């Protein structure tokens, strides 16, 4: 078990660091201080062959390419101040209407033009003899239109049990909408194929209803006995065919009470790799990369693109500031935002 840090590049006068976490089982995780971004996760397959299982880049400059910026897939980033879409890029809090930047059509997405995935984070703590690192950033009052000065910490811990534990913490000096997540795209084949042959199980019988703009309406509906009912494992490709579309679903977990529970299982037969997801969050956005550009690839040649990576974004309700029953979508001054998500790898 160890942690190492090296220079990843420079943005203007600021050095960007790359932190590498290793355990004794051959799992390696790399996180950049630009956006607290997971750039790489390498794990063995059933034959002991180590391979890359997430979308990302080995050079900082690749995150600023024209192809990446125009497609904006948020590979591996820590996204916020409020992830997912906020309807009409505005909300009202304590009688004051706040206007945000419009990112997709008329809506705000993932915090705005300079969300947390594009901010510079600093390494607050790490242990060379353990596989863990804590990063910090600050979001200032009215940054991207949001009220309050918010201090944010994210801790990445790689365990001996092949778990990548992500712990989030934040405090504010003014009430503000707040929820963050990690936006990693996984492909358990090691990008030898797309994700259509991955088997997925998600412990949810409801999903949000979104309007034609992609914003949550506040209505939740049952998925029981429908193609997107994933309470028993299904192949992604089979469900895509039955739905006539890829996944971009926010699934809701009943009676979670913000306690840590297992909510999803992903398996891929040819590699033998598996991924289990545990979270304290009330829901998860399951996305199968239907908008990801085929022009994107890692410098080594690993091909990204449509249906070549899946996201498991655990967070509070999309459009939460505009939904009356959205749990804990507003962070208050006397609270500490705390959230944990665990990705447990197997092979």
């Amino acid at each position: 078990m160890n942690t190492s840090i090296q220079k990843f590049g420079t943005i203007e006068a600021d050095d960007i660091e790359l932190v590498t976490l290793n355990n004794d089982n051959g799992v390696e995780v790399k996180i950049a201080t630009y956006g607290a971004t997971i750039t790489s996760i390498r794990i063995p397959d059933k034959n002991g062959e180590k391979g890359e299982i997430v979308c990302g880049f080995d050079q900082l400059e690749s995150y600023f390419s024209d192809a990446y910026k125009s497609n904006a897939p948020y590979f591996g980033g820590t996204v916020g101040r409020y992830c997912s879409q906020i309807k009409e890029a505005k909300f009202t809090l304590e009688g004051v209407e706040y206007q945000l930047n419009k990112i997709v059509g008329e809506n705000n997405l993932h915090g705005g033009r300079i969300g947390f995935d594009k901010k510079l984070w600093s390494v607050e703590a790490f242990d060379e003899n353990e596989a863990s690192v804590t990063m910090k950033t600050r979001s200032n009052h009215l940054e991207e239109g949001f009220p309050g000065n918010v201090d944010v910490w994210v801790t990445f811990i790689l365990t001996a049990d092949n778990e990548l534990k992500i712990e989030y913490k934040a405090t504010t000096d003014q009430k503000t909408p707040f929820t963050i997540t990690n936006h990693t795209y996984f492909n358990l084949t090691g990008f030898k194929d797309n994700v259509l042959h991955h088997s997925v199980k998600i412990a949810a019988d409801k999903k949000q209803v979104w309007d034609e703009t992609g914003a949550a309406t506040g209505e939740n509906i049952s998925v029981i006995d429908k193609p997107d009912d994933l309470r028993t494992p299904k192949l992604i490709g089979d469900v895509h065919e039955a739905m006539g579309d890829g996944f971009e679903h926010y699934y809701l977990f009943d009676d979670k009470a913000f306690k840590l529970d297992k909510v999803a299982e992903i398996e891929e037969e040819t590699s033998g790799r598996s991924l289990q997801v545990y979270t304290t969050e009330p829901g998860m956005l399951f996305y199968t990369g239907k908008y990801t550009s085929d022009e994107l690839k890692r410098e080594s040649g690993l091909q990204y693109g449509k249906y070549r990576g899946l996201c498991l974004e655990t967070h509070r309700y999309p459009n939460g500031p505009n939904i009356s029953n959205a749990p804990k979508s507003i962070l208050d001054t006397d609270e500490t935002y705390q959230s944990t998500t665990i990705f447990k790898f197997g092979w």
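The longest strand covers residues 2-11. The first helix runs from residue 66 to 71.
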